[in-house]
Amino acid sequence: MSQEVLNLIIDKVKSIAGPDAIIDSKLNFDIPYVVLDSSSWTTDLANMLKQDDALQFDFLCFVSGVDYKEHMEVVYQLHSLNKDQYIMLKIKTSRENPSVISVASVWGTADWHEREAYDLLGIDFVGHPNLTRILLEDDWEGHPLRKDYNIDKETLGLD
Amino acid sequence: MSIRTEEMILNVGPQHPSTHGVFRIAIKIDGEIIQEATPVIGYLHRGTEKLVEDLSYTQVVPYTDRLDYLNAMTNNVAWVHTVEKLMGVEVPDRAEYIRIICMELNRVASHLVWWGTFLLDIGALSPFIYAFRDREIILDLFTKICGQRLTYSYMSIGGVRFDAPTGWLEEVEEAVKVLRENIAEYDTLVTGNEIFQYRTKGVGVITKEQAIDWGLSGPVARASGVDFDIRRDDKYSIYDRFQFDVPVRQAGDVWAKYEVRLEEMRQSLRIVEQACRQIKDAGPDIQGKVPRIIKPPAGELYRRVEGSKGELGVHLISDGTAKPYRVKLRRPSFVNCQILPEILKGESIANLIAIFGGLDVVLGEVDA
User: Fold this and answer.
1) Which domain holds residue A120?
2) ipTM for this model
3) For residues B309 and B333, is the Cβ–Cβ distance under 8 A?
4) Which pLDDT value is given to residue B48?
5) Which domains does chain B carry?
6) Residue A51 main-chain phi, psi, to 5 deg
7) Cis peptide before B297 (omega within 30 of 0)
8) Which of B210, B302, B366 should we substitute to test contact with A (largest number of A Cβ atoms within 10 Å)?
């Protein structure tokens, strides 16, 4: 069943974002797993995932960012309450200027999650209504979850 | 004659008694009506997600205790369960049953703290004493099985750390009986109280659409008509072996949340009772086969469990070494908190505490 969902997602994504949009797709622990480039990730695509009759991904579990040293990825786990199906969507972006569109207008819950990813990884969510730090202080330097973040206590003034 | 009113900014917290932790909400009020509310969080941020990147998989367990410190058993399971799935570790039946008993008792304990403190916040002082009296029964049981009252670190990857001591299961069965009677007492003490109903009915209504849009989960979502419980609908552990109902209400107000949580306590006791019966047929093993140094294969996985506050998930990325590459903790309190600006707008300031209390937020989990 998951394989059918995956095929469906691939078809629908390609019809909106073009045939080359998908970098990688597979079943990961029986859950569809799709990697896109940040240039093909648009609010139209997000809206389609949410509103399409066969997909109906109305529940966004979480948004998170990952620093892979060479590039960065933003992770979305989506769940359809009606259809009982899942997808893990990953958006690949550059490490120097990590930038991904904001989906806070599509799923309300993305708001704080995106702020958290911005705060801890420095990912810019374009179109976010209020992209400010959420967990750390406003004048904090750097983004701790980046792999090159300096964790020397003395320079952080913690020792 | 018209009365001139002025907009005023009011800071609630970070040390307000009703926030049960450091949480600030800046509100703009016009007269007594809230115009705008801005939650400010992060006072308790410890950087758990960063810290665990430098720990072995086993060492992460105590850090999960400190997320939602009222629900540490379930936090432990959320972590070890994700690692087990990624490694393909089998957990023996007895360990699974003990886990279920501990998680469900912990849910009752967590809801009891909510019940007591929520009523305290809106002005009823004595229920707090009842709730903590009953919670103590559960904490005593936990002390006997793992030596801790709050930060258990009881789950290990592949099982549980210690077997239940002799007579413990009988004590649990006895405790279930006592708790069930005491929870029935709560209805006569509080539920029928007219003043309490006036304070909660129709207050802070969250619609089903809002609940889904804002990613709400757990009792908060179920009180708004979202019929979803991870224990039933996205099975983990051995929840498919138990009979239990998932209470759902349509109203979405604080009263509905109260009803859902009270019923959830009864259902949890039902599960504990069945687990105590079924465990007698399970083998003696409490620890599955795991290597001495835990190195899950490279890969990633998102798994979630039903915590007392909602969907508690772990997104784990392993690069094949002995330390996790990246861990994202999906904390239900963090997500549930986010809806506050939307539901507070237009409410009277007197309802602020009732609405915030109704969400049942634990700050250790909001800030992680």
Assistant:
1) 1-147
2) 0.92
3) yes
4) 92
5) 7-367 (1.10.645.10)
6) -100, -20
7) no
8) B302
Mark yes or no for CB contact B304/A61 under 8 Å: yes
Cβ A144–B50 below 8 Å, yes or no? yes
Q: Does residue A43 lie within any of the structural domains?
A: yes
By Cβ distance, the residue of B45, B49, B214 closest to A108 is B214
C-beta of residue A36 within 8 angstroms of C-beta of residue A90: yes
Tell me if A107 and B213 make a contact (CB, 8 A cut-off). yes
Using an 8 Å CB-CB cutoff, list chain A residues near B49.
120, 145
Pick from B357, B361, B355: which is nearest to B343 by CA? B355
Of A66, A111, A136, the CB nearest to B338: A111
Any chain B CB within 8 A of the CB of A107?
A: yes
Distance CA B77, CA B311 (A): 13
Q: How big is the A-B interface in CB pairs under 8 Å?
A: 80
Q: Is A154 domain-assigned?
A: no
Question: Which CATH number characterizes residue A32's domain?
Answer: 3.30.460.80
Sequential DSSP letters for A96-144: SS-EEE--TTTSTTHHHHHHHHHHHH--EEET-TT---SSS-TT--S-T
pLDDT in tens, B296-311: 999 999 999 999 999 9
Closest C-alpha to A74, from A35, A47, A22, A129: A35
Determine the residue of chain A that is closest to B311 in CA distance: A61
Question: Domain for residue A48, yes or no?
Answer: yes
3-state secondary structure B97-159: HHHHHHHHHHHHHHHHHHHHHHHHHCCCCHHHHHHHHHHHHHHHHHHHHHCCCCCCCCEECCE
Q: Give the C-alpha distances (Å, rounded to integers) separating B203 from A87, B192, B336, B342, B352.
A: 35, 17, 17, 13, 9
Read off the pTM.
Answer: 0.93
Quote the number of domains for chain A.
Answer: 1
- The amino acid that residue B160 corresponds to is V
Contact predicate B160/B98, CB 8 Å = yes
Q: Is B212 on the interface with A (CB under 8 A)?
A: yes
**Does residue A59 belong to any structural domain of this protein?**
yes
List pLDDT tens digits, range B87-141: 999 999 999 999 999 999 999 999 999 999 999 988 889 999 999 999 999 999 9
Averaged pLDDT for residues B354-368: 90
